[in-house]
Amino acid sequence: xxxxxxxxxxxxxxxxxxxxxxxxxxxxxxxxxxxxxxxxxxxxxxxxxxxxxxxxxxxxxxxxxxxxxxxxxxxxxxxxxxxxxxxxxxxxxxxxxxxxxxxxxxxxxxxxxxxxxxxxxxxxxxxxxxxxxxxxxxxxxxxxxxxxxxxxxxxxxxxxxxxxxxxxxxxxxxxxxxxxxxxxxxxxxxxxxxxxxxxxxxxxxxxxxxxxxxxxxxxxxxxxxxxxxxxxxxxxxxxxxxxxxxxxxxxxxxxxxxxxxxx
Length: 263
Description:
The protein is an alpha/beta fold and 263 residues long. Helix content is 49%, strand content 14%. It contains eight helices and seven strands. It has a seven-stranded parallel beta sheet with strand order 3-2-1-4-5-6-7, with helices on both faces. The radius of gyration is 18 Å and the shape is globular.
C-alpha cells in the first residue's frame, strides 16, 4: 500500500517510548520528516538514535512537558524552523493517574485536563493555520478504548479522553473544507509501560503478581493476547495516508475485539 507520505513532516507528542515511539518509527519507515517530543532528554536521545540506525533519518527531538503551554509553543516553533511546515500532527500522551472518584482531588483533575485534553487543543491550535495554508493536513489523536467502554479505576482517563473525542469530532467538520482530516485511534490493552503500571496497581489490590494480572488481561481479549505498539501505529499511519483522505471525524478502536458496543 502506497501511503503518499514520503517527505511529509510529522510531529508525534510523548514519543520517546511506547505508542508514541512506535508511531514515530512507522512514519520514519515511510520517509517522513519526523519530530518527537517528551519530558525526558535521555529517552529522546535514545529513541532518536534507534530510529536513525533503523531508517537512516534522525528525528528532530524536543524536550517538552505537554502540560506547559510555553513548552508546546517552543516545540512547534522548532518544528517549523526545521521542516518549514507541519503536515501531520499526532497528539499522544501518557495516561493520567489511576484512581476512583473519592480518591482524587482537584489537582489530579487539573493535571489530567492539561495532560490529556488541553495539550491536544494547544498543539492543534498551533498546527491548524499552517495546514489551512497548505490546504492539506492530518490530525490524529491517540486516545483509548475507554472513550467507548469506560474502564474501572480510570475515571480521569475515561472523562478527559472522551473530551478529546468530542473535540475532534467537532473540529473535523470545521476544517474538512481545507482537506484536513481529524480522527482518533483508540488502543485496547497494549504492551506498554502504562499497561504494566496499571497491572502493578491491580496486582496490589488483588494480592496477585503483576504477571498474573497481565495474563488475565490478555484473556479478557477475544484474540487472547495483548496488542503490540506497532499494531496501533499502523492504524495511525493509515489515517495519515492518502488512502484515508475521505475518512474524518471518526474513532477507530484497535482492541482485538475487546469493546462490546456496536457503535
